[in-house]
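Request: How about a record?
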Amino acid sequence: MSDTRRRVKVYTLNEDRQWDDRGTGHVSSTYVERLKGMSLLVRAESDGSLLLESKINPNTAYQKQQDTLIVWSEAENYDLALSFQEKAGCDEIWEKICQVQGKDPSVEVTQDLIDESEEERFEEMPETSHLIDLPTCELNKLEEIADLVTSVLSSPIRREKLALALENEGYVKKLLQLFQVCENLENTEGLHHLYEIIRGILFLNKATLFEVMFSDECIMDVVGCLEYDPALAQPKRHREFLTKTAKFKEVIPITDSELRQKIHQTYRVQYIQDIILPTPSVFEENFLSTLTSFIFFNKVEIVSMLQEDEKFLSEVFAQLTDEATDDDKRRELVNFFKEFCAFSQTLQPQNRDAFFKTLAKLGILPALEIVMGMDDLQVRSAATDIFSYLVEFSPSMVREFVMQEAQQSDDDILLINVVIEQMICDTDPELGGAVQLMGLLRTLIDPENMLATANKTEKSEFLNFFYNHCMHVLTAPLLANTSEDKCEKDAVVGSNKSNTICPDNYQTAQLLALILELLTFCVEHHTYHIKNYIMNKDLLRRVLVLMNSKHTFLALCALRFMRRIIGLKDEFYNRYITKGNLFEPVINALLDNGTRYNLLNSAVIELFEFIRVEDIKSLTAHIVENFYKALESIEYVQTFKGLKTKYEQEKDRQNQKLNSVPSILRSNRFRRDARALEEDEEMWFNEDEEEEGEAVVPPIEKSKQEDDFPDSYEKFMETKKAKESEDKENLPKRTSAGGFKFTFSHSASAANGANSTNNKSVAAQTSPASSNGSSSKNTNLTTAVTAAKGTLVGLVDYPDDEEEEEEEETSPRKRPRLGS
């Protein structure tokens, strides 16, 4: 079965009139008992499975095209094609088909194609079974020929018959000789008729005629006929363009003459389809389906021939990366690759896989890294297009390359950083290139398309790499445009908007909006890494400086970033926002916007409405206590009054709980330590936030234990959330001072038989601890726990409770144990 003569690809025509590759295999013709007749069988070369089993029906019209294609229709809308590797194999199978149908193998079509709607009429008119009689090919008969060609287009049967007549008499070549005569005589009328004739012959949609018309000998005359459109005052100069303007550039000389001829032919036929022929109307769109197929199969063949010639591709890569290559040559090489990748899009998925793997093996990514950093705008643009093909094909392949590269080279020359720098330095005022690159970066950092294998997770490895090596490059323009000295003047609530220096240059604003869009995406998809980054860099404060920009779209981007963070309903973020007083710039923007009813106004109100509807208690308390006076005058929405109502209801609930502490204790004794742990973990975050420049979450790459932290921490948070929802009513609520009431006092007061007044006094002792660093809090905690020991030793026994000294070493050391 390894005989290459019988090696074929099986294609089917889909609804969009595009050919789908069904696989490669070997074809044979044998008698199939089940189908009661000779059949074509194609078995896959990979696993021997049956790709095609098709009975050779005596009445089916089979067509042979381009010496290596056999095309036919199985059912009304099911077209099939076999593309042979070798002409000899195609001829063998064609003979078998002709034998079954009793035809001479020299024919190109085994049956006359009959349109069902005309079948009955066809039977009634036996004279139509004869071929159409063509007028003699002379100058004075051109009008008659043109009328004949245009009249048959509406009837599929007559189209087929005319095509056969044209083919049998070698009529196309005779017409093209007349064209040369007409042009020499400047016979305009004749040239107009020839335009109609040649256009009509193209619409016959016949592959055998295309092969004659698009041969080297004839194609330029065909293009010449199509220049003389009667609707135009002056003929177009298509031939001049194809011969003089369009230059065939060989980056590396192509020695295979058949390949060269195919490339020339494909370019010219594509030109005829795209430029010369008018866009087909709805009624004509199927007229050119064979032309589309002709171009498609040519492209597949070109890509396959180039791909198989590894010597050619290796030479192209060598020159592309060679420093000695001059700029013009390099530009041509990159443009060749861009074109090559565009052609590859016509391939089917498995062939495209092989194509990109070949490029990867030859070193396309290191080559791109060099050319993307070049000064030439054209080269960079073409390199970006090639990079986009690679990212769309396999983001994982690109990620694997950059992570390996990071072990060998500096951050500055990493491929992703080169891409980010191209995005930042885009000179186009509309940032067209930057938008394209931002989309590619988003694909690369999207966890949705990252694989998790048995021994490693691409997600954690790549995100660790990205935040360590690339994030600082991405945020550099944002941090530079919102630096401290630029926003110091804006420290007072309600300060004059014009005092703040903000990027008023439209192009910079566009770039910052793009960067913010990417960071907003990170907030949604990279929970742990981005949280660490935002808190380390105090990023939200910097972003909110942009609320003062005169470009409303940029202010809205900044607001959208904050809205995503609040949308996560994460208490760490909430505490960061309240502690940094980060609602202030948003409320200033709302007040500065005045009574204007615009998108900014709606977006800010939606942010507060979300906090009200989702009942985010810590934020509600912070907003009401600090900003309610500035906001109470806004009455056209009930949002702010609603927040005040929620806040007051919460206060009442707290007071009622204080009065019913004993019953709470009785129902919840078992949960005391879990809460103590939660508070312990909160203190850990608070303590680190207050140490200047210290990381709130451990730096990303330090030790194995810390590497595992994100996962274990997230598991811990999920357990914590489940517990909270299980017993929401009994959880301690955040008070206005920012502390938590009775978190540590329950067990202590129960042990001492304390009444509710004592409870209040213990609560009063513990709540200030949250704002005074963790040491005093820990002492209170220790006192509470040891006081409770006599009564509670049987509930949960923690070894850390044994000694005060151990307790004072604080929670960061215990974190891994918490999440485990």
Observations:
- The longest strand covers residues 19-32.
- The chain has a mean pLDDT of 76.
- The longest helix spans residues 639-659.
